[in-house]
């Protein structure tokens, strides 16, 4: 959207640029310099002119001209250098308005990049030039371009990071020419003085490249101008950023830098800066830098904590305001209540006064009425009785008032007395507790010294105990016999323990075998379902077991085959006696596992 009230000079210039051929556009744009020079600096008129220039796309025309080849532009490097000045002055102090995002994100980075490209072109032309006058002119144009770039960065510091990360800037810094190199390093020093924080926002690789180039120029070149500028630049970078100082101090890439700086020739113009740089790289200064870094970290933590506390208080501010309002309303209610009470007291006082006046009138009326009734000879007696009663009432009220006054005067002393009694009671309790704790936790101080009477008493007790419990004396032969008996009993015990262990192992083996057999019997199929040699697997290898099983089987058969009248006196669990001959006969036909048949 085109602004209203546009300067007619800008309007005519924009129309001329739009209608002119391409080769005449750069010369026409140079008239912008005259328009801005005729306007006072810092005035609102100059800001309006810059806005008009931006709105009519004259800044974009300047960028297009700067991106063209120098040989195709009328006036060559002179026109280009003047256009860079015009472009930087137009961008400084410009308020783009609605197109702010496009201006800051596209136009300004493009302008800075074009300045760096022009610097590289001028560097190439300066190196290839053979005449001295031509070199001086190209160097002058190069300084104009760098000054324009610095002027642009001074107002738009966000572009410093883009410039330092640019490959064109690194190529300009890596030049071997003394004049170009000193100009670029001077510009870098001025940029870091504007905003040194942009140096740490660039990539680590680019930062190392810049440091390597500055250190290389300081140590390898013989030009005092380059060495002085490199020393000042390196000193500024080390003083501004502790990270760079630590990098120069500890990195393996810069190992031995301090020793090489000490070998530099003394007596030069930059000896003072060189000494400062060497002092910064010393271990003591490094410790100071570490302490300063810790101090800054502590300050940062404190700042974050204070900010957190402030934000916390701000969050609580609404509740504090509510509390303040509540307390104000409460106080106002109390004041209103107090005023109402005072008003009620005044009303009550007035009512009491009126009642007293009424009572006084009534008493006077009663007195007059009594005087009319009383006999004239009895009036004096009556008056004297009334005066006595009145005196008694006055004395009674006066004594009450005096006692109440005395009590009010004695109340503070009585309160102090009660408080003193309470404090004394609490103090005595506390001292008693402390004394009790001291008794509990007091270290042992040893036995008390025994008196002669106590020694005699203890000796008498020892003698009585020895007399009641005489010790048994044993001869050497008796003790040896007792020792040999003890050894025999111990040997007998150990031999018996070995037999018991073997018997226990045998019992455990039998129990394991029995458990296995029981498990097999539990899992065995019935006799109807058994096939092949499965019944033979369950034959016992023990004769007693087989005999006991056979006996139980025969007993069960006889009990089943016996008549019913023989079973009347028997129970189901009673055992029956089986003749040994019958049992041996039956066992002869029984196969027992592990034995051969007869």
TrEMBL record:
GO BP: any one term: cilium assembly
Top-level taxon in the UniProt lineage: Eukaryota
InterPro entries: IQ_motif_EF-hand-BS, IQCB1, P-loop_NTPase
GO MF, any single term: calmodulin binding
Cross-referenced PROSITE patterns: IQ
SUPFAM superfamilies hit by this protein: P-loop containing nucleoside triphosphate hydrolases (SSF52540)
One Gene Ontology cellular component: centrosome
Name the UniProt record assigns to this protein: IQ calmodulin-binding motif-containing protein 1
Organism field: Vicugna pacos
């Amino acid at each position: 959207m085109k602004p209203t009230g546009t300067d007619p000079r800008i309007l005519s210039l924009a129309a001329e640029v739009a209608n002119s051929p391409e080769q005449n556009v750069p010369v026409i744009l140079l008239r912008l310099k005259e328009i801005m020079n005729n306007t006072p600096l810092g005035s609102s008129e100059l800001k309006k002119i810059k806005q008009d220039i931006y709105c009519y796309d004259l800044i974009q025309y300047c960028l297009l001209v700067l991106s063209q080849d120098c040989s195709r532009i009328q006036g060559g490097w002179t026109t280009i250098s003047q256009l860079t000045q015009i472009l930087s002055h137009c961008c400084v102090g410009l308020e783009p308005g609605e197109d702010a995002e496009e201006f800051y994100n596209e136009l300004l980075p493009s302008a800075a990049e074009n300045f760096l490209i022009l610097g590289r072109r001028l560097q190439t032309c300066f190196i290839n030039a053979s005449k001295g006058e031509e070199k001086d002119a190209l160097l002058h144009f190069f300084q104009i371009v760098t000054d324009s770039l610095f002027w642009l960065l001074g107002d738009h510091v966000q572009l410093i990071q883009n410039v330092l990360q640019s490959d064109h800037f690194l190529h300009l810094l890596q030049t071997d020419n003394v004049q170009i190199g000193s100009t670029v390093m001077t510009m870098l020093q001025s940029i870091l003085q504007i905003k040194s924080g942009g140096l740490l926002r660039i990539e680590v690789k680019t930062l190392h490249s810049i440091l390597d180039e500055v250190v290389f120029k300081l140590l390898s070149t013989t030009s005092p101008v380059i060495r002085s500028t490199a020393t000042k630049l390196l000193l500024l970078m080390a003083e501004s950023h502790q990270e760079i100082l630590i990098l120069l101090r500890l990195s393996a890439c810069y190992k031995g830098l301090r020793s090489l700086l000490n070998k530099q020739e003394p007596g030069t113009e930059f000896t003072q800066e060189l000494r400062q740089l060497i002092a910064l790289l010393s271990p003591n200064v490094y410790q100071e830098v570490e302490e300063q870094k810790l101090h800054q970290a502590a300050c940062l933590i404190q700042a974050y904590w204070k900010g957190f506390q402030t934000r916390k208080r701000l969050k609580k501010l609404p509740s504090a305001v509510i509390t303040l309002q509540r307390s104000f309303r409460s106080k106002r209610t109390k004041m209103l209540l107090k005023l109402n009470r005072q008003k009620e007291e005044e009303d009550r006082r007035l009512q009491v006064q009126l009642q007293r006046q009424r009572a006084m009138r009534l008493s006077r009326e009663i007195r007059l009425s009594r005087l009319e009734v009383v006999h004239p000879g009895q009036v004096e007696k009556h008056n004297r009785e009334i005066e006595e009663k009145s005196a008694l009432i006055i004395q009674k009220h006066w004594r009450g008032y005096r006692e109440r006054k005395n009590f009010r005067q004695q109340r503070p002393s009585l309160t102090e007395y009660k408080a003193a009694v309470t404090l004394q009671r609490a103090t005595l309790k506390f001292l008693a507790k402390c004394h009790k704790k001291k008794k509990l936790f007091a270290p042992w101080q040893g036995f008390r010294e025994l008196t002669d009477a106590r020694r005699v008493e203890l000796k008498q007790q020892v003698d009585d105990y020895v007399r009641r419990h005489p010790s048994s004396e044993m001869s050497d032969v008796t003790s040896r016999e007792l020792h040999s008996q003890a050894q025999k009993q111990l040997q007998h015990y150990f031999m018996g323990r070995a037999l018991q262990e073997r018997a226990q192992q045998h019992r455990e083996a039998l129990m394991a075998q029995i458990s296995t057999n029981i498990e097999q019997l539990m899992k065995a199929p019935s006799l109807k379902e058994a096939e092949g040699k499965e019944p033979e697997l369950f034959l016992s290898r023990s004769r007693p077991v087989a005999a006991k099983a056979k006996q139980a089987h025969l007993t069960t058969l006889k009990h089943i085959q016996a008549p019913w009248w023989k079973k009347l006196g028997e129970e189901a669990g009673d055992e029956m006696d089986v003749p040994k001959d019958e049992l041996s006969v039956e066992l002869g036909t029984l196969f027992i596992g592990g034995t051969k048949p007869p």
